[in-house]
Design brief:
Length: about 170
Amino acid sequence: MSVVYLLSSLPALSLDSKPAMTVAEFLAACRGELSAKDADACEALVSDRPCEHAFVRAWRDKEAVLRNMAVRNRARKLGRDAGRWTRPTSDCDLMLERLTDAAFQLEDPALREKALDRARWSAIEELEGVDPISIKRVFGYAIKLVLAWKWCELDEARGLAAFETLTDMPITL
Protein backbone atom coordinates (compact mmCIF):
# COMPACT_ATOMS: atom_id res chain seq x y z
CA MET A 1 0.00 0.00 0.00
CA SER A 2 1.58 3.20 -1.13
CA VAL A 3 0.25 6.74 -0.80
CA VAL A 4 3.29 7.95 -2.74
CA TYR A 5 2.53 5.66 -5.69
CA LEU A 6 -1.15 6.63 -5.68
CA LEU A 7 -0.44 10.36 -5.52
CA SER A 8 2.13 10.15 -8.30
CA SER A 9 -0.35 8.34 -10.57
CA LEU A 10 -3.22 10.82 -10.14
CA PRO A 11 -3.75 13.22 -13.07
CA ALA A 12 -3.91 16.96 -12.39
CA LEU A 13 -7.32 18.50 -11.71
CA SER A 14 -8.97 21.79 -12.54
CA LEU A 15 -12.50 23.14 -12.26
CA ASP A 16 -12.16 24.30 -15.85
CA SER A 17 -11.33 21.03 -17.62
CA LYS A 18 -12.61 17.47 -17.80
CA PRO A 19 -10.80 15.14 -15.40
CA ALA A 20 -8.71 12.38 -16.95
CA MET A 21 -9.99 9.94 -14.32
CA THR A 22 -13.51 8.99 -13.30
CA VAL A 23 -14.60 8.81 -9.69
CA ALA A 24 -14.99 5.03 -10.02
CA GLU A 25 -11.41 4.71 -11.35
CA PHE A 26 -10.15 6.85 -8.48
CA LEU A 27 -11.95 4.73 -5.89
CA ALA A 28 -10.60 1.52 -7.45
CA ALA A 29 -7.07 2.95 -7.27
CA CYS A 30 -7.65 3.85 -3.63
CA ARG A 31 -8.84 0.32 -2.84
CA GLY A 32 -5.66 -1.02 -4.42
CA GLU A 33 -3.20 1.30 -2.69
CA LEU A 34 -4.68 2.47 0.63
CA SER A 35 -5.70 0.84 3.86
CA ALA A 36 -9.37 -0.13 4.10
CA LYS A 37 -9.98 2.73 6.55
CA ASP A 38 -8.49 5.35 4.23
CA ALA A 39 -10.20 3.91 1.14
CA ASP A 40 -13.51 3.99 3.04
CA ALA A 41 -12.87 7.65 3.89
CA CYS A 42 -12.33 8.42 0.19
CA GLU A 43 -15.55 6.67 -0.69
CA ALA A 44 -17.41 8.58 2.01
CA LEU A 45 -16.05 11.86 0.66
CA VAL A 46 -17.23 11.20 -2.90
CA SER A 47 -20.58 9.65 -1.98
CA ASP A 48 -21.41 11.88 1.00
CA ARG A 49 -22.09 8.89 3.21
CA PRO A 50 -21.47 8.87 6.98
CA CYS A 51 -17.90 8.38 8.16
CA GLU A 52 -16.09 9.20 11.39
CA HIS A 53 -12.66 9.65 9.82
CA ALA A 54 -10.98 12.85 11.08
CA PHE A 55 -10.43 14.30 7.59
CA VAL A 56 -14.02 13.60 6.56
CA ARG A 57 -15.30 15.32 9.70
CA ALA A 58 -12.99 18.30 9.11
CA TRP A 59 -14.15 18.63 5.50
CA ARG A 60 -17.81 18.40 6.43
CA ASP A 61 -17.26 21.11 9.02
CA LYS A 62 -15.72 23.37 6.32
CA GLU A 63 -18.65 22.60 4.03
CA ALA A 64 -21.09 23.47 6.83
CA VAL A 65 -19.31 26.82 7.36
CA LEU A 66 -19.66 27.57 3.64
CA ARG A 67 -23.31 26.51 3.52
CA ASN A 68 -24.11 28.53 6.64
CA MET A 69 -22.60 31.61 5.01
CA ALA A 70 -24.62 30.94 1.85
CA VAL A 71 -27.79 30.69 3.97
CA ARG A 72 -26.95 33.94 5.74
CA ASN A 73 -26.39 35.71 2.43
CA ARG A 74 -29.65 34.44 0.97
CA ALA A 75 -31.59 35.24 4.14
CA ARG A 76 -30.13 38.75 4.29
CA LYS A 77 -31.21 39.34 0.69
CA LEU A 78 -34.75 38.24 1.56
CA GLY A 79 -34.81 40.10 4.89
CA ARG A 80 -35.21 36.91 6.89
CA ASP A 81 -33.49 35.29 9.85
CA ALA A 82 -31.04 32.57 8.81
CA GLY A 83 -30.90 30.84 12.20
CA ARG A 84 -33.49 28.24 11.32
CA TRP A 85 -31.41 26.91 8.41
CA THR A 86 -27.87 27.06 9.76
CA ARG A 87 -26.09 23.99 11.07
CA PRO A 88 -23.67 23.76 13.99
CA THR A 89 -19.97 23.80 13.19
CA SER A 90 -16.99 23.06 15.40
CA ASP A 91 -14.90 25.88 13.98
CA CYS A 92 -15.06 29.09 12.04
CA ASP A 93 -13.15 29.91 8.88
CA LEU A 94 -12.78 33.59 8.10
CA MET A 95 -11.18 32.96 4.70
CA LEU A 96 -14.04 30.71 3.65
CA GLU A 97 -16.59 33.20 4.96
CA ARG A 98 -14.90 36.02 3.01
CA LEU A 99 -14.82 33.96 -0.20
CA THR A 100 -18.48 33.01 0.24
CA ASP A 101 -19.48 36.64 0.79
CA ALA A 102 -17.52 37.61 -2.35
CA ALA A 103 -19.30 34.89 -4.36
CA PHE A 104 -22.66 36.31 -3.33
CA GLN A 105 -21.70 39.68 -4.77
CA LEU A 106 -21.94 38.06 -8.21
CA GLU A 107 -25.32 38.42 -9.89
CA ASP A 108 -24.92 35.51 -12.33
CA PRO A 109 -25.94 32.27 -10.54
CA ALA A 110 -23.49 30.15 -12.55
CA LEU A 111 -20.59 32.46 -11.77
CA ARG A 112 -21.65 32.52 -8.11
CA GLU A 113 -21.73 28.70 -7.96
CA LYS A 114 -18.30 28.50 -9.63
CA ALA A 115 -16.95 31.02 -7.09
CA LEU A 116 -18.38 28.90 -4.25
CA ASP A 117 -16.67 25.82 -5.68
CA ARG A 118 -13.41 27.76 -5.94
CA ALA A 119 -13.88 28.63 -2.25
CA ARG A 120 -14.37 24.92 -1.55
CA TRP A 121 -11.19 24.19 -3.53
CA SER A 122 -9.27 26.65 -1.34
CA ALA A 123 -10.68 25.09 1.82
CA ILE A 124 -9.63 21.64 0.60
CA GLU A 125 -6.09 22.86 -0.05
CA GLU A 126 -5.97 24.27 3.46
CA LEU A 127 -7.07 20.91 4.89
CA GLU A 128 -4.50 19.05 2.78
CA GLY A 129 -1.64 20.91 4.43
CA VAL A 130 1.82 21.44 3.00
CA ASP A 131 3.13 17.87 2.85
CA PRO A 132 2.96 16.85 -0.84
CA ILE A 133 2.87 13.11 -0.07
CA SER A 134 0.37 13.09 2.78
CA ILE A 135 -2.74 10.91 2.79
CA LYS A 136 -4.60 14.21 3.21
CA ARG A 137 -3.69 14.96 -0.42
CA VAL A 138 -5.56 11.82 -1.50
CA PHE A 139 -8.60 12.84 0.53
CA GLY A 140 -8.48 16.34 -0.93
CA TYR A 141 -8.18 14.87 -4.43
CA ALA A 142 -11.38 12.90 -3.85
CA ILE A 143 -13.38 16.05 -3.18
CA LYS A 144 -11.71 18.03 -5.96
CA LEU A 145 -12.44 15.21 -8.41
CA VAL A 146 -16.16 15.37 -7.59
CA LEU A 147 -16.14 19.16 -8.02
CA ALA A 148 -14.33 18.92 -11.36
CA TRP A 149 -16.79 16.33 -12.68
CA LYS A 150 -19.70 18.47 -11.53
CA TRP A 151 -18.57 21.28 -13.82
CA CYS A 152 -17.68 19.18 -16.86
CA GLU A 153 -21.01 17.35 -16.77
CA LEU A 154 -23.05 20.54 -16.99
CA ASP A 155 -24.73 20.75 -20.36
CA GLU A 156 -26.54 23.87 -21.53
CA ALA A 157 -29.00 21.98 -23.74
CA ARG A 158 -29.96 19.58 -20.93
CA GLY A 159 -30.28 22.49 -18.52
CA LEU A 160 -32.56 24.40 -20.88
CA ALA A 161 -34.64 21.27 -21.47
CA ALA A 162 -35.05 20.80 -17.71
CA PHE A 163 -35.98 24.46 -17.35
CA GLU A 164 -38.58 24.16 -20.12
CA THR A 165 -40.05 21.07 -18.49
CA LEU A 166 -40.36 22.84 -15.15
CA THR A 167 -41.78 26.07 -16.54
CA ASP A 168 -44.00 24.71 -19.30
CA MET A 169 -46.82 23.64 -17.03
CA PRO A 170 -50.30 24.97 -17.67
CA ILE A 171 -51.77 26.99 -14.84
CA THR A 172 -55.37 26.05 -14.21
CA LEU A 173 -57.50 27.75 -11.65
